Amino acid sequence: MKVHLAVQIFSTSVTASLRYLATHGYDGVSYFKECLATVRYLETMFKFFKLHDVSNKSQHVRQHDHDVAPYTNTSDDRLLWLDQEFPLYIKGIQEKSQAMGMRGLTKETAEAFLFTSKSTHLCIKYLISELNFFYVLTREFSSDAIESSFANVRLRGGSNDVTDCKAAEHALRQILKSGIIKNVNSSNIASDCSYISFVTPHPDQNSVDSTIVITLDDSTLIKLEKL
């Protein structure tokens, strides 16, 4: 997913600057003293992102950061953080916000955080303990394929943010008929492909390579756009 710029809001350079201003102030400005709760929130969210963005076996060495090391055992302290500490923090935000008459996180956002944290914890433990994985890289837990499908459904419905059931059903039928999905440039998907094909070889084909490369001319692409 293309979230690099968004994650920078939670980066250590931002939180370190805010923490310094909260502790030492700046030219007589005192309102930064009240931002420590915000600093903790930013640090917590940044750690959450990092734990879900472990991409290779040497990343933690280059960055000197244990949070981006591969998961290799079920006793990893990061799994405990995902299973207990982070959910308690999210629930605490909701409870304190409600007690103070504030909104806090939306119900959907809070549930998504809790679900993602719990599922990541369980998935990593399952892969290591049950399937004997040597290590787990959480960046591979990608929902881009699902999001690409949603984006294509919206595109076929006129790029409408509020797609109704009829438009969604029509889009899905066309995808199933053509077996092709177009990647939307403005979607939140990191992909270099313009089209994704679900075409697979027929069982009777005597082909060693199970991959079929399809070249479509411009007229065919125009017709597909109108489906």
From TrEMBL:
InterPro entries: TNP-like_GBD. Pfam families: TNP-like_GBD (PF21788). Residues 1-59 form the Transposable element P transposase-like GTP-binding insertion domain. This is Transposable element P transposase-like GTP-binding insertion domain-containing protein. The lineage of its organism: Eukaryota, Metazoa, Ecdysozoa, Arthropoda, Hexapoda.
